[in-house]
Amino acid sequence: MDDSKSSVSVKIFGVGTAGISVLEQLAAAALPHVALAAVNTDTKSLAASSVAEKICLETAPSRGAGPGGDPKRSRAAAEEHLPRLKQACEGVDVVFLVAGLGGGAGTGISPVLAQAARESGALVLAFVAMPFDCEGNRRLQQAQLGLEQLKAAADGVICLPNQKIFKLSDENTSVVETFKILNGLLTEGVTGVWRLMAHKGLLEIHYADLCALLRDRHGESSFATAEAAGATRSREVLDKLFAHPMLDGGKTLAESDAVLVSLTGGPDLTMSEVHRVMEHINGKCDRAQVLMGAAIDEAFRERLAITLVAVKRGEPAMEKENVAEENIEPPRHTEDLNARLLKQENGAPRPQSRFIPPAPDLTPEKMEQLARQSRSRKNASKMRQGQLPLEIVSKGRFDKSEPTIHKGEDLDVPTYIRRGVSLN
Which of 34, 90, 320, 328 is 20 to 30 Å from 228 at the Cα level? Predict the structure, then answer.
């Protein structure tokens, strides 16, 4: 049943080495009515790609060798080729960005490309992978900063923390196999969302509904995919879905504001199966708005696949006018005054005043009185400590005991009395 919605044009950009790797799997899937484009600053990575459209953001300093893991250099290269990126997004309704964050190209180029796509009028969804914890603090910090910038530029960001892949692998899983699993998850996520809005079926999600749900929300999302076959496919697909590490045992669904569900089955998919699946998913979504679509594909006969996207909305983007106002540098004297007032409010001591008040006017009688007080203070005798007339008290039951004599001194007598020490 090939009823693709030709009115909605979709273009997928693979950014950086990781994004281009996922793009190769999407190219092998041969999604109909979808354009693919590879974007990078590294000419070697682009040359190895089989995608027809390649956008090389080469700059004079890099000379096609890449940014060397520096997102700032990649961002500068993308901003330098901004008109070219906007031209690549013209006439496209939905733009998918696929990238790995933490390195140079994916972290630096993705926010600029997302902004260019939005300015061209497209709905922008980003699928990104976060680095492993073992990759070091530098990559983790760069990835987090790039994620914040991407959330501010795109309509929605679907994030895949690589660390969660350990729940899908074991100790014998090799590095190559691990990254294949990661690329497969991103591929399934992109394909599932594309099916959700690109095919007609039992229930259809309109492009306008998807835009209204994601536009200007700047959310960070999670996704999960599951597939089962056979007579018990509806029950098995739910077990696999809720066991997915991205959903954290259903906690992600409970905390989400919106949930997109894409069901794909063959012509034998029944309405009772759709109802059973959605009943369990709705039970996990305490406060989320659920948006569901069911597509029919001949290739999924006797199979059922679910792609779920849980959207956690962020704050709406700030208007450019307000941002421009915030970037205006205040006058220097105003900034200094604000800093001094802030210090005073925090309890810091105030600076000494430069104003020196004049000496008070004193009458001759008052001056003579002050002089007498000064002479009396100088002639005052220094106070000395006197001896208190203390009486000797009986030692009680130790009265008849021999005193402890050492070098002619009675050690039973307190030291300060024996040595005549004055107590202050």
Answer: 34
